[in-house]
Specification:
The complex is a heterodimer. Chain A is α/β, with parallel strands linked by helices. Chain A contains eight helices and eleven strands. In chain A, the strands form two sheets. A six-stranded mixed sheet of chain A has the order 7-8-9-4-10-11, with helices on both faces. A five-stranded mixed sheet of chain A has the order 1-3-2-5-6. Classes of the chains: A alpha/beta, B alpha+beta.
Chain lengths: ~260, ~850
């Protein structure tokens, strides 16, 4: 059993606890009997508010599964997950959808945008679906920060990969979710475009107080985070605060070597 | 071999996606085969009954009515009984027997209810002799032996719940008489629908012909080894030249009997095949869409195949091969379905009284071949364009993103071609609307309909963009962002939306067109009825003319100011002053007819046309044969003498009733034709004395109690009758068009289902960012509704334009009032929205159920 539970610290704004999301004893297993595969093995984790958390680990370590479970996209076999004080595990589809819509933002590796909608329509989509009016000033600020002002009427296929990901980031931010989950958000981008998106995410944490959880296998991407969690074989095996690319790479080599030895 | 293998694997891998296309092929082929099997079975059933009942050689008077023709005059042409002995002596005759047959009868039970199996099918009264045993068997009771005995066929007995001892009153031309059932006879072959009443020999002669010692025909049985044709020759030789008798072999009688019926069956067959053709056409759209979408979804795979060395032709062929497999599977099932459909149709006819035995189902060898050829050809032809498109996919496609490449916007060439076609179609319709002669216009109408239809199909994708936007602006706004997403989805591939909508358009255009024409017919007829019909009552028999005793009863009714006779000489010959002989139908009516039907005239006063030795001719006749007012014509009635008549009226042809008919006064006819040879009244008209309408009606009604097959209708009833008749016809046609519409609905389902598969990742994304299941389902439903309404709008618009044009053209034939049946049109429009909802049911459910994680998983 492994834990990455931080000691609650006060922080964030009005009434919220310092922990934006928690997982307690989460198990995710596929199949049964001999073919049973455990993707998450009694994981405990706290995601700090207004912090940028990276989840790393080799392929098959369960990092994506953990993120999917935290975000309410996937169900768990046992254990509990909370977003703020709301228990996600056990919610019915309807409530879960509402939760995703109103309190969570997503950035995927690819195919983030609806091809039929232009950039601004994509950005406001979660609010449109909820039937909420976007906060004009906030939206302008987000759009401005992402640097898309001139391209809002463009369809996704008229935008570069980096621009598309920035639109996705803007969409995730525009609704002011409590937490944003990114699944290799720069996985499909070249290093320059990737750096743009990552520094933008960083700024949204620093300047807007956003909470971000990001799955990645890229040490450079992880170096933008406040804290890095390492997963292996469905367990959290290590964590690192204030990482740099070199330190992360170092640590991963260490794990890889350990993996090969065992 | 590998090509075959990949095709087969692809076919099996996508059998779900092929299922709807297969159903479309199945339905079309089933309809074609069902029609063929059904009409072939009808034909063979009638063939058998005619074979069983027709004598080897029959001898009958030359002017005897043939086949199902009704007896028109009081006197029936007959042969003296003495001829039997004479004919028996002819070499090769085994036996000769006299037949007395009348189809001009109405039989009623003790409650005065008509004893006919099918409305419109003849009831037959005939004499019983041992020759009848060839086709029937007395299954209970005994054959008729005395003047009040009757034996009835088992089908009629069963349907009308008759049993031995029941009273049957038979209304024949010479008078009516009452009989008691003494026996029931069962046919050895299927008797499709005639109610048959057997009388004894003498009773038949006396009651049906009015006198004994004569027959309507003589049946000869050939001696063993003597051919029918040979016997016919010897009989003709015996009768000698100049005989007024005609001799027919069994084959000839059969042919004659089948002529009328065969013509009807042919019309039915081709009409049904026409509707099947429309369904096939609609099915093509579905198949084109299916293959286009399958190819689009498989772009990467095909790119890979090309990259590793498949040639264009191989790709092309592999898609066509899949189509071939689909066609074969669909057609074979379709053939089986067709047989089922034919059985269903026979059962349906059974409930309407027609007696068809499913054990006699006739499946000709050509039927399955025709079915499979049609099914396979259509499928392969429909898949040809998508197959070519597949062949032209570049190997680079393998390297590109998995997303479906957006098909280009509707091309310029398509737009130009579409507008050209639609434009010339519209021009042809305009010409039609302004045509002076109906015959000229008809060709342009056909051309206009065809061109506008093809034009609309070609510019469908362009129209889709415009119409869907407009529809969405009106309908989808209320649904906020979900509505907008639905609109965008419907618009993202205009070609697909266009083809899906076009499939629905075809069926609905025909519905709209026919409903416009139908309601215009009703409106025009009732306008015309109001304008020109003065008679209070119109009296007609269900089937054939009004019998003399009924005529007398009507004339005896009280509170009437006049009663009008109306009869017709079908084969009269007119001789113009220039000596030209013209065979034309001449109608004879009482002078009061001028009040009953106030037909417009060009010259003269209408009533003068019915005066003694006067004639009223239509303007067309006057023009064609250069006959003017005051000219003298001679009329040979063919049933008596020749009358010299003077033209006193030239009637206008700008009317719906009696358009182009020639009329004389009934007195003129009576002066030259004996009472026996005088045709019976086809119709009668009557007018009530001022203020006694109700009593007059009741009085006529009471008089008609003697023959329930004759009806009296006032003007309101008559309008209702017209409306009902046209309504029934339209319902039948709508029912048949239903098939094409069902196939079109399958097309909508198909497009949506494949779209949902295609958009798996989008759906996952939307669900991830918070679109609820319900919103997802609503989005798909709205897309479906918009597509359906797009098709409906196009179809209804096109159909109403066709209908209005047809009405303009038919205005020349009396269809003067244009009536757009808005309730029908609006119902169809709303119905289309429901169809859209229905079509989206399963695709929407599947989209809602899609696993979010699978959907967003990268590769």
């Amino acid at each position: 059993m492994t834990t990455a539970v931080s000691i609650p610290r006060t922080g964030g704004s009005g009434g919220h606890t310092a922990v934006a999301a928690r997982a307690r004893q989460v198990v995710k297993a596929y199949g049964s009997g001999e073919t049973r595969v455990v993707a998450l093995d009694h994981v405990d984790v706290d995601i700090a508010r207004s912090q940028y958390t990276a989840i790393m680990g080799p392929s098959g370590s369960g990092k994506s599964t953990l993120m999917h479970c935290l975000a309410g996209l996937d169900t768990v076999t046992s254990g509990n997950i909370y977003i703020n004080e709301t228990e996600v595990t056990g919610l019915k589809d309807k409530k879960l959808t509402q939760l995703r819509r109103d309190r969570i933002g997503f950035i995927f590796q690819a195919f983030n945008l609806l091809p039929t909608l232009n950039a601004i329509e994509n950005i406001t989509l979660p609010m449109d679906i909820a039937g909420r009016k976007p906060d004009r000033a906030w939206l302008d600020r987000v759009v401005d920060t992402v640097g898309l002002a001139g391209r809002l009427k463009h369809r996704p296929n008229q935008l570069s990969g980096g621009q598309q990901q920035r639109v996705a980031v803007a969409r995730a931010l525009a609704a002011r979710p409590e937490i944003i989950f990114g699944d290799e958000p720069t996985g499909n981008l070249d290093s320059r475009a990737g750096a743009e998106v990552l520094s933008f995410l960083r700024r949204s944490v620093d300047e807007l107080g956003q909470t971000i959880v990001m799955v990645t296998h890229d040490p450079v991407a992880a170096s933008y985070a406040n804290r890095v969690l390492y997963l292996a074989d469905g367990r959290i095996v290590d964590e690192m605060y204030n990482p740099t690319a070199e330190l992360v790479l170092e640590r991963m080599k260490h794990f890889d070597a350990r993996g090969r030895v065992s | 071999m590998t090509v075959l293998k990949t095709s087969l694997r692809n076919f099996l891998a996508h059998k779900g996606r092929m299922a709807l296309s297969a159903i479309a092929v199945l339905l079309s082929v089933a309809f074609v085969c069902g029609t063929l099997v059904f009409t072939d079975t009808m034909n063979s059933t009638f063939d058998k009954i005619f074979s069983a009942t027709a004598p080897d050689v029959s001898v009958s008077p030359k002017d005897a009515p043939s086949g199902d023709d009704m007896q028109r005059t009081r006197k029936v042409p007959t042969i003296p009984a003495a001829k039997i002995a004479e004919l028996e002596k002819v070499k090769g005759v085994k036996s000769a027997a006299g037949d007395t047959v009348s189809t001009s009868i109405t039989a009623v039970d003790k409650n005065n209810k008509k004893l006919s199996l099918v409305d419109g099918a003849p009831s037959v009264a005939t004499n019983w002799d041992s020759g009848e045993l060839k086709s029937v068997e007395v299954t209970s009771g005994h054959e008729p032996r005395g003047p009040t005995d009757v034996m009835v066929d088992a089908d009629t007995a069963k349907k009308k719940k008759l049993k031995i001892g029941d009273t049957v009153r038979i209304i024949a031309v010479p008078g009516d008489f009452t009989t008691t059932i003494t026996g029931i006879a069962t046919f050895q072959v299927t008797n499709p629908g005639s109610a048959i009443f057997y009388l004894d020999d003498e009773t038949a002669q006396r009651r049906l012909l009015g006198a004994t010692g004569k027959y309507t025909s003589i049946a000869l049985t050939a001696a063993p080894g003597v051919g029918h044709d040979e016997l016919k020759k010897s009989v003709i030789a015996k009768l000698g030249p100049g005989s007024d008798l005609k001799v027919k072999t069994k084959a000839e009688t059969k042919e004659e009997n089948k002529d009328d019926l065969g013509a009807f069956l042919d019309v039915m067959k081709y009409a049904m095949l026409g509707f099947a053709g429309i369904a096939v056409l609609v099915g093509i759209f579905l198949i084109v869409n299916t293959f286009s979408m399958l190819v689009a979804q498989r772009t990467r795979e095909i790119g890979l195949m090309r990259a590793i060395g498949s040639s264009r032709r191989q790709i092309n062929r592999s898609v066509l091969l899949e189509a071939l497999l689909l066609g074969v599977v669909g057609s074979i099932l379709g053939v089986l379905g067709g047989i089922g459909l034919a059985i269903g149709l026979m059962k349906l006819m059974g409930t309407m009284g027609m007696n068809l035995d499913t054990s006699e189902l006739t499946v000709k060898a050509t039927t399955p071949i025709v079915g499979v050829v049609i099914g396979v050809l259509t499928t392969v032809i429909a898949a040809y364009i998508p197959a070519r498109r597949a062949g032209s996919i570049s190997p680079m496609a393998a390297l590109r993103d998995a997303g479906t490449p957006a098909e280009g916007r509707a091309g310029k060439i398509r737009a130009v071609l579409g507008f050209l076609l639609t434009g010339s179609g519209a021009a042809a319709l305009a010409v039609t609307a302004n045509a002076d002669k109906a015959a000229d216009g008809a060709m342009f109408l056909g051309l206009g309909v065809l061109l506008t239809l093809i034009g609309f199909i070609v510019i469908g994708p362009l129209l889709a963009s415009v119409v869907v936007r407009a529809l969405s602006a009106v309908l989808l706004r209320a649904f906020g962002s979900v509505g907008r997403l639905a609109e965008r989805n419907a618009l993202r591939n205009p070609r697909r939306t266009g083809a899906t909508g076009a499939a629905l358009m075809i069926g609905l255009a025909l519905v709209a067109c026919l409903s416009v024409v139908g309601s215009s017919m009703v409106a025009s007829a009732s306008d015309e009825l109001d304008k020109s019909v003065g008679a209070d009552f119109i009296i007609e028999a269900d089937n054939g003319p009004i019998k003399p005793q009924v005529e007398r009863a009507i004339k005896g009714a009280k509170h009437l100011s006049h009663v009008t006779d109306y009869k017709s000489f079908e084969d009269a010959i007119l001789t113009t002053p220039s000596g030209k002989k013209i065979k034309e139908e001449v109608n004879a009516a009482s002078p009061t007819y001028a009040q009953d039907l106030r037909s417009p005239v060009i010259e003269g006063k209408l009533v003068d046309g019915f005066a003694k030795n006067a004639i009223a001719i239509p303007e067309g006749f006057a023009k064609d044969h250069k006959v003017a007012m005051g000219d003298t014509l001679s009329v040979d009635f063919k049933e008596g003498g020749t009358a010299k008549v003077t033209v006193r009226v030239i009637a206008s042809e700008d009317t719906a009733f009696n358009k182009g008919s020639i009329h004389i006064g009934v007195e003129t006819a009576k002066a030259h034709v004996t009472a026996d040879n005088m045709p019976q009244n086809l119709m009668m008209f009557a007018e009530a004395k001022e203020g006694h309408d109700r009593e007059a009606y009741e009085s006529i009604k009471a008089g008609l109690a003697i023959d329930p097959s004759v009806n009296v209708r006032d003007q309101a009833d008559y309008k209702k009758l017209l409306e009902d008749q046209i309504g029934q016809m339209l319902n039948l046609v709508y029912g048949l068009l239903g098939l094409a519409i069902i196939v079109a609905i399958l097309g909508v389902v198909n497009t949506l289902a494949l779209s949902v598969v295609e958009r798996t990742r989008e759906i996952g994304l939307m669900r991830a960012i918070g679109l609820s299941r319900r919103q997802m389902r609503r989005m798909i439903r709205l897309e479906s509704v918009v597509i359906a309404l797009f098709g409906a709008l196009l179809g209804l618009g096109l159909g109403m334009a066709w209908g209005a044009t047809a009405q303009k053209l038919l205005a020349l034939e009396g269809l003067k009032t244009l009536e757009i049946p808005w309730p029908t049109i609006i119902t169809v429009f709303i119905g289309s929205a429901l169809i859209g909802l229905l079509a989206a049911l399963i695709p929407a459910f599947r989209a809602g159920r899609m696993n979010v994680l699978n959907a967003i998983a990268t590769d």
